Amino acid sequence: MTSILAKQIKKRNVPSATLIYGENLDNILNHIASISHLITKHNIELSNETTEDISEPSEDVIIVNPLKSIKIDLIKTLQQRIKYGPSKNTYLMIIIHNIQRLTNSAKNALLKSIEEPPNQTLFFLTTKNKLNVPQTIKSRTQHIHIPEPPNEKAAQFNNEVLSINEQLPYIAPLDFLEKSPFERTIYIQSLPNETPMLTRLLSLWQQSLFDNLSNLKKRDHIFLQKIIEIISNIKYNFNLKLQLLTATFILELEEEDLQ
After folding, report:
1. What is the pLDDT of residues 190-201, one digit of tens each?
2. How many CB atoms lie within 10 A of CB 87?
3. Which residues, listed in sequence order, are joined to residue 125 by a DSSP beta bridge?
4. In this structure, are residues 240 and 198 in contact, taking their beta carbons and an 8 Å threshold?
């Protein structure tokens, strides 16, 4: 990410808005700090601490990071603050964390600023999962993925598997897919009904399949897509076990077509 934006900054050809996504927001923040150094020529400590007002850790660097939703009043405050562009540096940097938390009214207000930004103003929007970001935002931004550092990612994955194993028997997704349709159904029915636990399991399956993306069969790709759909619509799914069962039934039909 740093190299891409560094070249754009050097050429004075930076898009007005960049959507930065990845599993670790602290890691994303470190990359944005590197960019802020290129712009301001100062080392700036960027915090992930939440606040209900805009914060300014340095001149021409503004952070929006409320605890819950990003409401229109906060976006209006931001718009008033940035309407004249940078005061000292080449660019005015706006960092909005967890952009998926925008309310509808705030989203519409922010779109106007992204489409017609004040002079020399750059928006950096962060999220863990870009599937949760409104399409209207995604279509107006360049997208950059910041992966988890390999060692940290592996350690976190293993720790999460061990944690889940304390409450339910964890089966890797590729092992799950090798089971018969009947065995898959029995496993799903044995899972607890609690949404948080099932969400953790699905997230691990998604990560595991992504990590093996180049080796996946067509069947595995289909299952990964179904998991992504379930996770992206998690707030609307009142029965995750039913959603997962439905996905396996669809997979069974797909497998029959592949034979």
Report:
1. 888 888 888 888
2. 8
3. 19, 96
4. yes
Q: Which residues contact 6 (CB under 8 A, 6 or more apart)?
A: 35, 38
**Type of residue at 4:** I
What is the domain partition of the chain in residue ranges?
A: 2-145, 150-258
Are the CB atoms for 67 and 50 separated by under 8 Å? yes
The mean predicted confidence, pLDDT, of the chain is 85
Instruction: Output the pTM of the full model.
Output: 0.62
The architecture CATH gives domain 2-145:
3-Layer(aba) Sandwich (3.40)
